[in-house]
Amino acid sequence: MTLAAGHRAKFAVVAVWVALVAAFGSFAGKLTDVEENDPVSFLPGSAESVQALEAVDRFPSGDRAQAVIVYHRDGGLTAADRAAIARDRASLNADPPPATAPIPPAIPSRDGRAALLIASIDTSDRVDEDLLIGATDELRDRVAEGVPAGLVVKVSGPAGFSTDAVKVFEQINGTLLLATASLVFVLLILIYRSPIFWAIPLVTVLFAEVLSRGIGYWLAKAGVTINGQTSGVLSVLVFGVGTDYALLLVARYREELRRHEDKHEAAAIALRRAGPAVFASGMTVIAALLCLSLAEVNGTAGLGPVGAFGVALAMLAMLTLLPALLAITGRRAFWPFVPHFGDAGTDETHGLWRRLGERIRPRPRRVWIGTTVALLVLCLGLTQMNSDLTSGNAFRGDVESVEGQELIAQSFPAGANAPTNVIVPPGGGGPAAGAARVAAVGRAAAGVDGVAAVLPVERDPDEGTLLHVTLEAEPYSERAFDVIEPLRGAVKAAGGDAVLVGGPTAEERDLRVSTARDNRLIVPIVLVVVFLILAAVLRALLLPLLLMATVILSYAAALGIGAFFFMEVFGFDGIDPALPLFAFIFLVALGVDYNIFLMARVREEAHAHGTRLGVVRGLAVTGAVITSAGIVLAGTFSTLAVLPLVVLTEIGFTIAIGVLLDTFVVRSILVPALALDVGDRVWWPSALAHRAARPDDEREEGPEPAAAETAGSGSGGAA
Predict the structure, then answer these.
(1) Which of 73, 242, 380, 710, CA to CA, is 20 to 30 A from 33?
(2) Are 589 and 286 in contact (CB under 8 A)?
(3) How many helices, marked H, and strands, marked E, lie in the chain?
C-alpha cells in the first residue's frame, strides 16, 4: 500500500494497529502467567531425566520439594549451636510454614562443622502458585532469627534453588522492559536531536512489543514452551530489530523530504526504496529463528516461533504503522532540524563514510586481508571456551541457595544437596522378585565410581521403588555429569531398560547432550536458509557466499572476545552450553541485516555507476544510519546484563560485541573492501556482473572541500 494513494489511508492503518493492540493488549500482561520456569521448560522433552521427573511426580512424595537448611561453623559446632538447631526444629514443627511436613532430627557432619535440617514442602496444591516460594522464604526468615555469633545458616536444596530462580525470572519482564525502553528513548533523542521525533519510532516499537507479548500468550496456551529467558529475549529482540528498521526507513524518508516537496510522496518513495531491504532483513531473521523449532531442548524450540512472531510484528509495524505516522506528522516532527525541500544533506558524495570508502578504494585487497587477520586474532579467545556454567553457578552476585550448597560441600558429600533419583518400576515375579531387583539395582548403583551412598526412599505398588543416590561430586559439576552415563548403564544392566535415572545432575547432563545435538543440526540449516534468502534478495551467488563468510568470521570473533572476558575479566565459572547456538542465530541473522542494507543500496548505485563507485556511494549514504542502528541493537541486547543471571549476561554481551563488530568492522571495512576488490563479478551470475563499462564509471569526482563536507554532513544529522 502507498500512502500517497489517499489521505484517509494513513489514518486507516493507524486505526487497524490501535484495534489490534486493544484486542491483544490485555493478554500481554498475562504472558508471565503462562511462563514455565520449571526444569522441564529448559530440558529436552525426550530426555530420560524428563521421563524420570514425570515418574517421580507419580509417587506419593513426588509433589514435595526439599529445603535443606545448613548450619555451619568453621571451628566446629558448639553446644549453643546445637541448641539453636534444636530450637529451630521444634519451632518449625510446632508452627510449620505452609505445606511443610514435620522435620526429622538434624543430620550432623562427620567433621563436626555442620548439620542439616531437611524440610519437605508439599507442592501438590497447584491453586497457590507461590506456595513453594512462600514456604521457603518463611523458613529462611525464621532460621535467621537468634543465630549465635559465628554460626552461618543458609537454606538451599531444590526448594532453595527453585525459589531463587523463580524470583529472578519474575524480575525479567518489568526490569528488562523498563531498561530497554529507557535506553532506546535516550538513543533516539541523541540520534535525531529532536524533542518530538523520538516518540514516533518508539511508539511504533511499543505497539509491536505489546502485540508480540499478547500473541506470545496465545502461543503458550497452544502448547509452545515459553520460559522467563524466552520472554526476556523477546522484548530485547522486538525493541532492537524494530528500532533498526525504523532508523533505516526514517533515514530514507528524511533523504526524500529534501528531494520532494510533498510529504506523502516522500513517504511513499522511502517505503518503496527502503521497504524491500527491511522486508528481506526481517524474513532472514524470521527464517533463522524458525530453525530453532527443530531443537530438542524445550526452551530453545519455544524461542523459535515466539521470536519469529515478534520480529514479524516489528517488521510489519515499520512497513505499515511507521510510514503512516510519518505521513501524518510530516517535516514538523523533526524540529528543530527540519529537512526542507532542496536542503543539502547526507548524500553519495560527501561525509565521513564517503571518505572512508575513498581510503579503501585504492588498495582494497590489502584492507580486507588485514581486517581478516585482525578478526582471526580475536578468534583466539575461543581457546577459553568451556561449558562449566550450570544451575549451581548460574547466578551473579550472592544467592542464598548457592551459598548453602557451597557450605554443604565443605562437610558432606556434595551431592547430598541434590540427590540423583533412580526409579525401579514394578515387575513380574511377585514381591520377592521385585525386592531382589531393587536390591540388585542398589548394589549396582553403589558400585559406580563417584557414588557416595544409595538410600531407598519410597516404595509404591503401582510406581515401583524410588532410590536416592548421593554423588561424591558437587551435583552441578562436570565430575558429577560424568557419573550419570555409567550409573545409567549399571542400573539398567541390573534392573532392566525400564529403570530410569533422573534428578538435577541427570537433567543438566541431558541438557548438554541435547544442546550439542541442536548445534550440529541447526547451524548448517540456518546457513543454508540465510544463503538462499541472500541469493534471492541480491540476485547473485558469489556475493552471498562472501557475505556469509564475513558474518561467520565476525561471529567467531565475537564469541572469542566474549569467552576471554567471561573467564579472565568477569570471573564467571563457565559458559552456558546454549550460548554458541543463540549467538550464532542472532549474529548471523542480524549481521546479514546490515549487509543487506548496505549491498541493496550498492546494487542500486551500481546500475548507474558501476560496482566500485557504487560501493563508495552506497557506503557514503548508508554509513550513518547503519551505524546508528548497530549502536541501538547492541545497546538493547546489552540490557540483558541488568538481570542477575550469568547466561543472559553472556548472551547480551556476546551479541552486543558481535553487532558492533558487524557495524564498525565488517560492514564498514571488510565487505566494502571485498566488493571493491572483486568488482562487477561480485554480482555473478546476474546480468549486473556482465554490465558494460560506461564513460562515467570510476570517474566521479571525489568529496568536495572540507567546508562543503561539513555542511553536508551537519545537515544530514546522525540519522
Answers:
(1) 242
(2) no
(3) 22, 8
